[in-house]
Amino acid sequence: MEAEMMRWLAVGMAAGLGLLGPALGLGLIGYATVQALGRNPEARSAIMTNMILVAALTEAIGIYALIVSIILAMVGETSLAALGL
Amino acid sequence: MSQLGCSTRLLVIIAAIVAILFIVGLIGGAIGQALDIGSPDFLHVPILEIHEFFKGDALFEVGGFSVSNTLLASWITLILVVAIAFAATRKMRVIPRRLQGLVELGLETLLNFVESVAGRKHGRRFFPVIATIFIFVIFNAYLALMPIFGPGINVTEREEVHAATAGTVVEVVGREKVEEGDVICRLDTGEEITAPISGHVHLEAAEGDPLSVEDHIASIESKPPLFRSANTDINMTLGLAIMAVFFIEFWGFRSRGFRHYFSEYINLGELFGGIKLLFKGKVKAAPMMIVTGVINVVMGGLEALSHMTRMISFTFRLFGNMTAGEILLLSATFLVPWIMAIPFYGLEILIGFIQALIFGGLTLVWASMAVADAAEEHE
User: Fold this and answer.
1) Cα dist. A5→A10, A11, B132, B176, B269 in Å?
2) Of A52, A66, A74, the CB nearest to B324
3) What is the CATH classification number for the domain harbouring A47?
4) What residues 175-234 of chain B have any CB closer than 8 A to a CB of chain A?
5) Domain tally for chain A?
6) Is residue B8 within 8 Å of B15, Cβ to Cβ?
7) Which residues lie closer than 8 Å to B137 by C-beta, 6 or more apart?
8) How far is B80 from B72, CA to CA, in rounded Å?
9) Which residues, in sequence order, are CB contacts of A29 under 8 Å at separation 6+?
10) Which alpha helices (H) appear in chain B, and where do they start and end?
11) Domain encompassing residue A65
């Protein structure tokens, strides 16, 4: 495989595989929230506040994966040339 | 039951306008230009560049300090917020009227939120910092949706590259985008001609061309936007993150005292106590204490580490969300110009609000965790 092909493959896989985890995590958060709301609809504001907080923390992990793939995609041609690729 | 809310005739008119805009957008955007159906030139929408930079593009220098377009945007936010605050506090009345009432509504909502999380005692103390973070981030995010921000207004810079000596061109750069200092072409005399600025290259010389002195080889053009959302600048988000973490630690120290606050993270007491027991000869009780001591040290170290990684997570969470949103909006506009950006604008409004809430809210939660346990002791 050439280096160019591996580089673009790495960009795609970094974002794709890295976002699996946060997606699963957010689904679990939604599940727990809906269950809690079903049991105790009166605690709505507390449950929703906590849900938004934890969801943002989980989403940040996905953003890190996106940052990694952006960095990989943006590695300049001069840097690649300096590495000899 | 859901109601339409307007007459059918009005609905038909609105639908017709949206349909026309949709078709015009399809024809004029990237899809239509790629399909090559011979659409008239005046409909073509210029295909926009997506600048993926971590820091804003530097526009000009003021005494050695380079001002970037994101810095300009944050100045606009600053002026706007200060102007609103100034206008709302002119001639204040006990029963507020329009602008003062609106600002009071916003601030009171924020204060209720802060006090609901931190409790009445600490709520007022945390409020200025949390409210500043929230207002700054949300104003930055919403101002970025204005049309003057982003690739609408550009600061074009153009440089011509001339040959310094005579020779024949041996090798020419193959791609369109060059960085400052990249080699544009190589002559047979061994000399390399480099790019003075970074941007797009329009080549005039080809391989095998003979060149004499002062021949025009290429012109480089860079078009950075004049304003760019301040949240997409990693320096700004890093600055906010450092400030937030500094205040969390500061409040922790003030509430719990220096030694006591540190003792939660550098928890060597039990470990040393266990070793001392071992020396005193109480071999039976010592290993248990040593084991729990080691666990305490590791847990404390991990807690301290998580404190430091908060800075990184704050920075990248805000930066990633805002930059991804900017790229998303540009891509949506690029595909079907007028219509497809509308739902994404709604998404961006929501994301801006949520990110501001998260940044302020997480600072608040961690600060209240840092000042808590002041009255309760462990053992």
Assistant:
1) 9, 10, 46, 20, 55
2) A66
3) 1.20.20.10
4) 175, 177, 179, 181-182
5) 1
6) no
7) B231, B240, B318, B352, B355, B356, B359, B360
8) 12
9) A51, A54, A55, A58
10) 8-28, 30-35, 69-88, 98-143, 234-256, 258-263, 269-280, 286-335, 341-371
11) 3-83
B52 in reach of chain A (CB within 8 A): yes
Say yes or no for a CB contact (<8 Å) between A77 and B175.
yes
Q: In the beta sheet, which residues pair with residue B194?
A: B183
Query: How many residues would you count in chain A?
Result: 85
CA distance A11 to A1: 15
ipTM of the complex: 0.74
Place of tokens 């009255």: B375
SS (H, E, C) B324-359: HHHHHHHHHHHHCCCCCHHHHHHHHHHHHHHHHHHH
Prediction pTM value = 0.78
Q: Does A75 touch chain B (CB under 8 A)?
A: no
Q: Please enumerate in sequence order all residues whose Cβ is within 8 A of that of B358, keeping only pairs 6 or more positions apart, or say none.
A: A52, A53, A56, B317
Please report, for chain B, the start and end positions of each structural domain, with discontinuous segments joined by +. Answer: 8-43, 48-154+228-379, 157-222
CA-based nearest residue to A57, from B327, B366, B239:
B366
Q: Which residue in this structure is represented by tokens 């960085």?
A: B179
| Contact call for residues B363 and B122 (beta carbons, < 8 A) | no
- The answer to whether B43 and B27 are in contact (CB under 8 A) is yes
Q: Express each pLDDT in B17-74 by its tens digit.
A: 888 888 888 777 777 777 766 666 666 666 655 444 666 666 776 666 778 888 888 9
More confident of the two residues B66 and B176: B66
Are B324 and A78 a contacting pair at CB < 8 A?
no
B157-222 belongs to CATH 2.40.50.100: yes
